[in-house]
Every structure is written in structure tokens, then in C-alpha cells.
Design brief:
The chain is mainly α and 420 residues long. It is built from 19 helices and no strands. It has a domain of 150 residues. Helix content is 84%, strand content 0%. The protein is rod-shaped. The chain starts with 10 loop residues before the first helix and ends with a helix.
Length: 420
């Protein structure tokens, strides 16, 4: 048997214990008063009508009080410690109580109709929106989120966790068909105004690189030339090569040049092929998978992730954290927006209801868990807890039994006295 761990009694438990002791004393005192009255009337030398009436009432009160004391005590233990059959009901029925409690929770708390109706009447979306719309609550929620971020980000720095995330991300990325997505993005980009600006920046970078590496081009041409070719010829070849490349770049820079239009058409054709051509999509996926599996790519991603972690953790430690302020702003905006958007509140309600109803197929396991836990408790612990919870109210049964017995005893005496 598994006994529930003892803990310091709470204020509610202390109140329950005081109420139980008080009502036990009242019920026992009432029974003792009836017993004293009965024996006192038996000692009267010449009992009259009123003495006999009091004796009859006291006698019935003692019988009723003792019967109800026996019934209440038999629920929790053997009366007077005697192994009387059908007593100590709760300790003997602990397993059946656990099973009944599990079935009760399963049928009356986890039924789909009950859960759905309760959630709809509770309107969690509206309540959450109203709560988050308050600036103090939004600030408190944001602070809780930012307080947890260092632990979350720090845990992701573990090499095993990072390797697992990288492998999982890589496997998921392999399953995604990126070719048509990339094709559509390229098509949208070439049709936008940003394309020409980026293209011009690329040309600037190419011309700068060409000018900075002119000497290396001269040396490379000389190294690859025949020994008998004069250096002057090699230099002219290198100069012609650099000049030709520079002219191509200059032509590409002209807005209406045919070279620029052909280059754009080539990019658009490549993008269209990523969407429509199975062969081009296959080659794109093969290149993507090789890139994902390359060890240097994993090392680079790990380095990038470590740097991002360092930046986030440093920012979160700063007194004026931009991350913390961004989370606070996001929470305030979310609360204000959600409070005005009734449709989004309805969607949130539907999502919460769907998530709650997803538990319903496992309600049998939940009921079985409750049953198993209760059955694993020590019988004395269960008895002590239940007596503390309901024992105070059960003492009123003893009081009522004593008082009702007295009334019945008096009534029977009067009937016998006047009728017989």
C-alpha cells in the first residue's frame, strides 16, 4: 500500500478538525445527558406522570443515540475495536470507492457534451481577451515570458539538444518541396522594384571585386601561359579579359540594355522551371539535400545559433532589454487587438474546445488513473481524510438520532397512556 505523504495541516484542515471535535463532543454530551436522565428517573421512589414521560423519552433517546453512534462509527472503523461484520465500511471498500470515483469523474466531468457546454458558457476567448487587455496583466504576462526565455534558450545550447534539433529540422526540410516555393518567390522578386536595386548592388560589388583583384588576374594569366609567350602579351590578354568583363558589367547596368533584359529573362525562366519542370525540381532538391547533409553547413548553422543565443541572453540580462520591451509591446497589442476582434475570440474558443475534446478519447485512462491512485493509498489515510472532510456533518446524525429518539419515546408513552 502507498500512503499519501504527510504534510503540515492547512488552515482548512485545522478548521475541519476543530469542527469535528466540537460536534463529537456535542453529540456525545447529548447522549450522556439522555443516559443520566434515564438512570435518574429509574431511581425515583414513586414516579409520576412527568417522571415516567421523561424516562420514556430518555430511554428512547439513549437507544437512538447509541444506534446512530454505531452507524457513524461503523463507516470509519470497528466500533469499540470489535470485528463486527459489516463495519469499518470505508477501509474495507477503499478499492470500490476508488473505482466509483474514477467512473464518476469519467462520466460526469469528461463527457463531451458536458465539456463543450461548460467551455461555451465560460467563453474563455472573451475572458482571456478582457484580462490581457488590461495593461497591468499584459505587463505581468510579458514578464513571465521573458523570465522563462533564458532557461529555454540556455537549454537549447546543450550539444545533444542542438544536434537533435538540427537533425529533426534537416529531416523536415528534406520532406518539404522547396522548388516551387523558391520559384514563386523569385518570380515575385523579379517583378518588384527591389529587383533592380539589388541587381545594381550586385554589379557594384562585382566591379569592386574585379578592380581589387586585377593584379591577381595578371598573375594567374602568366602562371597559366606558355613559357615562351612574352609577359607583354600575357598582360595584354589579362587587360583584355578585365576590360571585357567590365564592359559586360557596364552593359548590364544600363536599364534598357538587351543584356540586362536577357539576364532577367534567364532568371524568370529558371523560376518558372522550378515550378513547372519536374527535372529542374529534382535537381534543385538534390542540391538542397546535399547542402543540408554537408558537415560544414551543420557547423555553420551551429555557429549561427550559438551567436544568436549569445545575443539574446546578453540582451535579456541588460537593464533596458529590447527583447523584453518587444515582448511587452506584443502582449499589449495582442490584448487590445483580441479584445476588439470578436471573430478571433470565437476562433480561440473553438480551438480551446477542440483541444479539450481531444482529451475525451482518453477519459477511460483518466478514470483508470484515478482508480489506481486511490486504490494505492493506505486504508488508514483514506479513512482519516474522509472522516476529516465529512465527519463533522455526520455528528449531526447522532444528535438528531438522540433528539428524534426522545421525541418518539415521549410520543409512544403518551399514546399508551391515553389509549390503553
Amino acid at each position: 500500500m502507498q500512503e499519501r505523504p504527510e504534510h503540515a495541516p492547512t488552515d482548512a484542515e485545522q478548521r475541519q478538525r476543530r469542527a469535528l471535535r466540537r460536534n463529537q463532543a456535542l453529540a456525545t454530551g447529548l447522549l450522556l445527558a439522555a443516559a443520566v436522565a434515564f438512570f435518574a428517573t429509574r431511581l425515583a421512589p414513586e414516579p409520576g406522570f412527568w417522571v415516567l414521560l421523561l424516562r420514556a423519552g430518555a430511554e428512547a433517546a439513549v437507544v437512538g443515540g447509541l444506534a446512530d453512534w454505531f452507524a457513524v462509527t461503523a463507516l470509519f472503523r470497528h466500533p469499540l475495536g470489535l470485528p463486527i461484520p459489516h463495519t469499518a465500511i470505508i477501509p474495507r471498500s477503499k478499492d470500490r470507492i476508488g473505482e466509483g470515483l474514477g467512473n464518476f469523474v469519467e462520466r460526469n466531468f469528461l463527457a463531451p457534451a458536458i465539456i463543450a457546454a461548460r467551455l461555451r458558457s465560460f467563453a474563455p476567448g472573451r475572458r482571456f481577451a478582457d484580462w490581457l487587455a488590461e495593461p497591468e496583466n499584459a505587463m505581468r504576462a510579458a514578464d513571465q515570458v521573458t523570465a522563462a526565455l533564458p532557461y529555454v534558450i540556455g537549454s537549447l545550447g546543450d550539444p545533444a539538444v542542438r544536434d537533435f534539433v538540427a537533425r529533426s529540422f534537416g529531416e523536415q526540410l528534406k520532406e518539404v518541396d522547396l522548388a516551387p516555393i523558391a520559384g514563386r518567390l523569385i518570380t515575385l522578386f523579379t517583378a518588384s522594384n527591389q529587383y533592380d536595386a539589388l541587381f545594381d548592388h550586385a554589379l557594384d560589388a562585382a566591379q569592386s571585386a574585379l578592380a581589387e583583384n586585377a593584379d591577381r588576374i595578371y598573375i594567374s594569366v602568366e602562371e597559366r601561359s606558355q613559357w615562351w609567350v612574352p609577359k607583354t602579351i600575357n598582360r595584354r590578354i589579362a587587360t583584355a579579359l578585365i576590360t571585357g568583363i567590365d564592359e559586360v558589367l557596364a552593359e548590364l547596368r544600363l536599364p534598357d540594355s538587351s543584356a540586362r533584359e536577357r539576364f532577367r529573362a534567364t532568371i524568370e525562366d529558371f523560376a518558372a522551371g522550378l515550378v513547372a519542370s519536374p527535372e529542374r525540381r529534382r535537381r534543385f532538391d538534390e542540391a538542397k539535400n546535399r547542402l543540408i547533409e554537408h558537415p560544414q553547413m551543420h557547423a555553420w548553422l551551429g555557429t549561427v545559433w550559438d551567436e544568436l543565443r549569445r545575443i539574446f541572453l546578453s540582451d535579456l540580462d541588460a537593464p533596458l532589454s529590447r527583447t523584453r520591451e518587444a515582448v511587452r509591446t506584443a502582449m499589449r497589442t495582442l490584448g487590445q487587438t483580441l479584445a476588439r476582434d470578436l471573430e478571433m475570440q470565437a476562433r480561440l474558443d473553438a480551438t480551446i474546445e477542440h483541444a479539450a475534446l481531444a482529451v475525451v478519447p482518453w477519459r477511460g485512462q483518466i478514470g483508470a488513473l484515478i482508480t489506481e491512485v486511490v486504490q494505492g493509498w493506505d486504508a488508514r489515510t483514506v479513512t482519516r481524510r474522509l472522516e476529516l472532510a465529512i465527519g463533522s456533518d455526520l455528528q449531526y446524525i447522532r444528535m438528531n438520532g438522540t433528539l428524534v429518539g426522545a421525541c418518539v419515546g415521549c410520543a409512544l408513552y403518551l399514546v399508551g397512556y391515553y389509549l390503553f
